[in-house]
Design goal:
With 158 residues, the chain is an all-alpha fold. Helices cover 79% and strands 0% of the residues.
C-alpha cells in the first residue's frame, strides 16, 4: 500500500496530548507510549550532548589528575533535579510530559547520580534516614564492586 502523509505522521504526538501529558492507561495506548518514548529520547539526546560537551570542555582545562568533570556534572545534575522536581511537582504541577523530558530524559542522560541524590533526599524527607543510609552505602559499594567485576571480566575476555 502507498504511504500517505497521514500514515507517516499518525504516530507523532499532537500538541494537545503533549500538554496534557502522557497517560499510561487509556483507549489509545500507542500514541501516549510513543509520546513518552519520544520525550525521554529527545531529552536524553540533549542531556548526553550536554554531558559530553561540558565534560570535554572541563577536562581540557583541568587535566587527568582528578575527575573534576564527573564531579561537576554529578553535582550540577543533583542541583538541577532537585530544583526541577520541586518546581514541577510541588510548586507548579507541571504535566508528566515535562518531567519525562527533563528529569528522566535530559538529566537521566546527563547524570544518573542526580536521580540517586534526589531519591535519597526524598527518603530522608519522609523520615527514612535508615533507608537513605542503606541506599547510599549499597549504591556506592555495589557500584564500585560492579565496576571491579566488570573490569575483571573484561580482562578475562581480553
Amino acid at each position: 500500500p502507498a504511504l500517505s502523509p497521514l500514515t507517516l505522521t499518525s504516530w507523532l504526538p499532537d500538541v494537545k496530548s503533549l500538554l496534557a501529558g502522557p497517560t499510561r492507561f487509556g483507549k489509545r495506548w500507542a500514541r501516549p507510549r510513543m509520546t513518552e518514548l519520544f520525550l525521554v529520547g529527545a531529552g536524553g539526546f540533549l542531556g548526553a550532548i550536554a554531558r559530553y560537551s561540558l565534560g570535554g570542555w572541563l577536562a581540557e582545562r583541568t587535566g587527568p589528575v582528578f575527575p573534576y568533570e564527573t564531579l561537576l556534572i554529578n553535582v550540577t545534575g543533583c542541583f538541577a533535579i532537585g530544583l526541577f522536581m520541586t518546581l514541577a511537582v510541588d510548586a507548579f504541577a507541571w504535566p508528566p510530559a515535562a518531567r519525562l523530558f527533563v528529569a528522566v530524559g535530559f538529566l537521566g542522560a546527563y547524570t544518573t547520580f542526580s536521580t540517586f541524590g534526589y531519591e535519597t533526599v526524598k527518603l530522608m524527607e519522609g523520615g527514612g534516614f535508615g533507608l537513605a543510609l542503606v541506599n547510599c552505602l549499597a549504591s556506592v559499594t555495589a557500584g564500585l564492586v560492579a565496576v571491579w567485576l566488570g573490569i575483571a571480566l573484561g580482562k578475562v575476555i581480553a
